[in-house]
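Dear colleague,

Thank you for sharing your sequence with our group. We've completed the structure prediction you requested, and as agreed, I am returning the results in plain text so they can be pasted directly into your records. Please verify that the sequence below matches your submission; if there's any discrepancy, let me know and we will rerun it promptly.
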Amino acid sequence: MLTQIKGLHHVTSMAADARQNNDFFTHKLGLRRVKKTVNFDAPDVYHLYYADEFGTPGSVMTYFPFPNIGKGRHGVGEVGTTVFSVPEGTLPYWQGRFAEQGVGGVAAEETFGEKRLKFLGPDGDGFALVEDKADTRAPWLKGGVPADEAIRGFHSVSMRLKDGGATEELLKFMGYEEVDRAGNVARMALKNGNGADVIDIETLPAASFAGLGAGSVHHVAFAVEDRAKQLEVRKALMDTGYQVTPVIDRDYFWAIYFRTPGGVLFEVATNEPGFDRDEDTAHLGEALKLPTQHQHLRPYLEKHLQSLEG
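Please find the predicted structure tokens below.
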């Protein structure tokens, strides 16, 4: 069993409109945009990062907003719901805020004894807030949401799978353990993680497979402390039979990727070097930052990338 995994690192999804996406996360949810850069493989597309003040692993929601991308089709083989943690007793505040902001799909529920508020992103993305009185992580304080109500980071992700058994075994190998089960949903959790420690697996054998598009999660990333720990994880996964990519430099972390038995793309990302490697913490996410190989495109990109403000 692996011991290097420390919880979630980030979740990366697809969107259709960069400005709308930026507005939703920075204004409606009150998160901080900690990086404005571009997709390594498609530099005419933004890669936007939203998080707490520092871009702490376990708080980072990222997006590829592809202009004119088709809408995703929800189903099995994907992360269906990305769940954020908020303080105990704050869901009424968020329900009122969502009503004022015109956020859709809002519904209160209780799962595994936790009060939750489901809602939809601008592309039909599945989200929820969960009240977690044990979460002591510090929120971003300048996002327009009072400190006592603000999002702390991720609580969990929920995967929809045709058969959850093999992915449950993978997560156990990665250090998770089953802590609860309700109907067709198994709850897996990591002890002594970074606060974003929970994975729910919903088994839906009769459901259709998902189709990637706007509103879909592209991949979910797990955190390790550094490159040495990442290499240990890579070797262990490969020894177990998984096809794992070489280590890829993503400027703000190093990444490896592999496809899970249920079809979800997993990444293992380092906590180093962090989002302040090319910007002062006070100004994270303000300037357009480009990977070295795309620096020559700056004049074109600054002219053609959609303005995020206005």
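Summary note from our side: The longest strand covers residues 78-86.

Kind regards,
the structure core
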